[in-house]
Amino acid sequence: MQAQERDGKQAIDLYRDELRRTIQNVHNLIFKYKRGEDGSFIFTLSEGKLARDFGLTTESIGQKKLQEILLTCNEEKILPLYERAYAGQIVEYEASIGDRIFTTTLAPITDSGDVVEVVGSLTEITERKQMERELKETEELYRSLVEDTLVGVYIAYVNEPGFVYVNPYMADMFGYTQEELMKLGMDEVILPVETADETTNSHKDTSHSMRYPFRGLRKDGSTVELEVLQKTTVYKGLPAVIGILLDVTERKQAEEMLRKSEMLSIIGQLAAGVAHEIRNPLTSLKGFLHLLQSRYEDKPKYYDIMLSELNRIEHIVSEFLVLAKPHNVVFNLHDIRPMLEQIILLAETHAIMHDVQIVTKYDADLPPVRCEENQLKQVFLNLLKNAIEAMPDGGEVHVEVEREDNVVVVRFRDHGCGIPEDRLPKLGEPFFTTKEKGTGLGLMVSYKIINSLGGKITVKSKEREGSTFEVRLPVV
Q1: Per-residue pLDDT tens over the stretch 250-305
Q2: Which residues belong to any copy of the Histidine kinase domain (predicted)?
C-alpha cells in the first residue's frame, strides 16, 4: 500500500514538473492569482517566456500583491477587471507597456461554485497591431484614391443585376446618388452606339480585359460620351468585373472641332479660287440682265426669276469668300446687348412674316467680349433667322444672355420642329442643311467665326420640341 502511494506521489510530481516545464516554454505569460487574507490579490504562479523577459517568474515575485506588479501599468483601469474575473466573469482586455501591446485573458477557477483562483494569459500582439494599423492605412489610402479620383470606378457581378460599388465621381457622371446608381444595371445607363453589335454588348463580355467607347444615359435624359477600361476579377468569391470610366465628351468635341477645322481649311482654299472665278462672269451676267430688263419689259416675271437666282449665286459666292483665307480683322471690346438689339430690329420684319414673337432676357452688368462687331452680328443674325424659320406655324423665339464664370452665353431657343439626333453632329458642315432652300454655309461660317474668337457653339435639340443654339464667348 505504501509502495502504491509512493508511486502515485512520484507520478504526480513528474506530471507537475512536466506541466511546469511546458508552461515555462510557452511564449506567453501564464499566471494565477487569488485573494489573500487581507483581501488583496496575490500571484501564485507566473511562468512563460514573457515572464522571464519581465523578470516576473514565480520565484522572483514570490507572493507579491497585484498592486505591486501593476506599478508600471494603469492600475486604476486594470484592477477592476481583475475584480470582475474573480467575481466569476471571463475578461479580456488590451494594455500597453511602453511601446509594446499585450492582450490578457482572465478566466475564473471555481470549486463548488465558488471562485478560488483566476488563471490568466498575457500575449504580445505588438506586431499584429502594427500589421492591422498598416493594413488600415493602406485600405484608407486605396479608398481615398478610389473615392476622390476624377474617373468613374465600379464593380459589378457578372451574373447579377446592379452594381456592387460605384464611386462618387461615377455617380456624378450619370447625375445619380451612389445609392440610386447601385440599384441600376449597366444596361440601364448605356445607350446603343452606331457600331457593330459586339461593341454595344461588350460590357457583358468577361473573357478578357477590354477598352471600348459607349454613350451613357444620365438621370436627366441627357447623354455623355464615355470610354470604359474593364477587367475581370473575383469579388467575394463570385466572378465580377471592375471598370474605370472616362468622360471623353470634351475630347470627342475637340476631335470633331479639329476635323471640321481641317475641312474648313481645305474648303476655304477651294472656295477662294472658285469664288473669284465665278464672281467676274456673274457681274457681267447681272449687268446684261439689267440692260435687257430696261429695254424689253414684256416678260418681267422671267427677269425677276433670273435676277433672284443670280442674287442667290452671288450670296453663295460671298459666303465662300468668308471661308477663304481670313481677312485682317481687328478685334475690339464690344457689348453684346446693343449688338443683339440691332440684330433683333433687323429680323423683326422676318419674324412678323412667320408669325413669330422674339422674347429677350439679359443678365444685368454683362461684361464686354473681344470680337469683330460685324462678324459677330452675322453669327447672331444667322442663328436668329434659323430659329424663326424653324417655326412655320409661328410661336416664340427666346434670346437669352447670361454670364457663367468667365464666359458670356447667348442662347437662341425656338419651339419648332427640332433636329433629328443623328443629324446634330453634321451641323456646321458645308452644304448640310435642314432647310429646303438652305446651303448650310451660314452655319458653317458662324462656327468658323466663333472658333476664331476662342468660343464655341453647342446645340441641344429634340424633334417636335425645338432647338437651343448656345454661343459661348470668353470674357477678357
Answers
A1: 777 667 666 666 666 666 656 665 665 566 666 767 776 777 777 766 666 666 76
A2: 273-476
Q: In 410-426, which positions are buried (b, 16+ CB within 10 angstroms) versus exposed (e)?
A: bbbbbbbbbbeeeeeee
Contacts of 336 (CB under 8 A, 6+ apart): 366, 368, 369, 401, 408, 410, 473
Longest dimension (CA), the chain: 161
Q: Which three cell numbers stand for residue 451?
A: 472658333
Return the higher-pLDDT residue of 363 and 212. Answer: 363
- pLDDT, tens digit (0-9, with 9 covering 90-100), for 143-161: 888 888 888 899 888 888 7
- Phi, psi torsion values for 414, nearest 5 degrees: -120, 170
Q: Do residues 472 and 383 lie in contact, with contact meaning Cβ atoms separated by under 8 Å?
A: no
State yes or no: pLDDT of 192 exceeds 50: yes
Tens digits of residue pLDDT in 91-121: 999 888 788 888 999 999 998 889 999 999 9
Q: Give the burial class of 363: count Cβ atoms within 10 A of its Cβ; 0-12 exposed, 13-18 middle, 19 or more buried.
A: middle
- CA 3/CA 12 separation, integer angstroms: 14
**pLDDT (0 to 100) of residue 187:** 80
Q: How far apart are CA 323 and CA 344, in angstroms?
A: 25
What is the number of other CB atoms lying within 10 angstroms of the CB of residue 28? Answer: 20
- Neighbouring C-beta atoms of residue 217, cutoff 10 Å: 17
Query: d(Cα 115, Cα 111) in Å, to the nearest integer?
Result: 6
Distance of CA 71 to the CA centre of its chain: 57
CA separation, residue 55 to residues 29, 64, 252 (Å)? 11, 13, 74
- Residue ranges and CATH numbers for the domains of the chain are 2-127 (3.30.450.20), 136-247 (3.30.450.20), 252-323 (1.10.287), 332-474 (3.30.565.10)
Work out the angle between the directed axes of helices 373-389 and 336-353 (0-180°, nearest 10): 30
